[in-house]
Design goal:
With 129 residues, this protein is mainly α. It has one domain. It is globular and about 60 Å long.
Length: 129
């Protein structure tokens, strides 16, 4: 290799979401109640993700599969398609004991969670107008 040029690649994840679950909550509960329910669910999802990140950093893997399954279920209930699918992929890597794949897919989950939560909070704010 000549030249010594290093190029930093910026990863941009495509985040798929389905607006129907949240729309259904709004139709069934009305705007005020739905806002509270969805905000609470997004907060719970963010806290679950933060708890998982803490467990992974400290290598406490005993409860990680259960927490990933919970994250997957919450994501699906909120229409966060990508987040739910990737949480399932992380569970598969964990179950197989594939440390390299786990690290890669976990990093992807973190990126998608960050984008999903930012996007959902923005969309939630726009639906209240």
């Amino acid at each position: 290799m000549s030249g010594g040029i290093v190029v930093a690649l910026r990863l941009v994840e495509r985040v798929r979401q389905d607006a129907e679950p949240i729309a259904t909550i709004y139709r069934n509960l009305g705007a005020a109640s739905a806002e509270q329910v969805v905000t609470r669910a997004l907060t719970e999802l963010a806290l679950t993700m933060a708890g998982l990140a803490s467990q992974i950093r400290s290598h406490e893997l005993s409860d990680v599969d259960r927490q990933l399954r919970r994250l997957q279920r919450m994501s699906e209930n909120l229409g966060m398609v990508s987040l739910g699918l990737i949480a399932g992929d992380v569970r598969i890597c964990l179950g197989r004991g594939d440390v390299t794949a786990f690290a890669a897919v976990w990093a992807r989950l973190l990126r998608v969670a960050e984008r999903s939560l930012a996007t959902d909070r923005e969309l939630l704010g726009k639906t209240q107008i």
